Prior knowledge:
Blueprint: E1 17-18, E2 21-22, E3 29-33, E4 40-45, H1 49-65, H2 73-89, H3 91-102, H4 106-126, E5 134-135, E6 148-149, E7 156-160, H5 166-179, E8 183-187, H6 194-197, H7 199-205, E9 213-215, H8 220-227, E10 234-237, H9 241-251, E11 257-259
Parallel strand pairs: 7-8, 7-10, 8-9, 10-11
Antiparallel strand pairs: 1-2, 3-4, 5-6
Amino acid sequence: MTRNGTSRQPAAGFSPYIDGRWIDSDGPVNEVLDPATEEVIAQGHDGTVRDVDAAITAARTAFDDGPWGRMSGVDRRRILTRFAEALDKRRADIADLVIAETGAIPAIAERLHVGVALDHLAWAVEQADRDRTRPLPPLPGHTLGAGVVVKEPCGVVGAISAYNFPFFLNMAKLGGALATGNTVVLKPSPMTPLEAFVLVDAAHDADLPPGVLNIVSGDVEVSQALTTDPRVDVLTFTGSERVGALVSAQAAPNITRVHL
Length: 260
């Protein structure tokens, strides 16, 4: 891996996207197949354990030292609205990508994979400036003060999505995490990485701060590097019960919150 990155997508098709840049990776070549024809539709580089480490570092720095978690909900909503609008403008292209990468028929790709996903993202964006502060009623006989529940961002979210409904799952994991001020390392299935990397141009159009969204595709070693890193505060995983149990076990020593 080299940190000599660029904001332009690599000619090979895709590579890890870290800290606002495409990264030249020495990870394995991944040929993405159209399941309907078994033809290669894209070729790129999956990430490595070192790439995951760099992605987590970028997300951790962006959360601890960057503006994302500290800016007002109004400002965050403004940026995410631009992000959602940029994806909506690419709706037809994303649907074509879904058809090619998952084998979905056009109606299902357009309405379910893409339409429902963008609706979910729009809902999450609307929550960005919602005041969730909640006063607690004082206990009887105690008048010295009152408690208040204040919701704060968790930190770095590691998101692992599945191959069968990838664009929606990516939106479902990203939307709420970003809207509430967290930074994200997204690990898509190596079978369907394109529906994650399609988010990059929209992130640039929206001026999403570097390190807020990082994407590294890959297989088991890449996932395990994400699930075992103590700098990750929350893990969200969609997949089989067997792998979900492994994710929980790997996260347990760090007491990382896990959503399955």
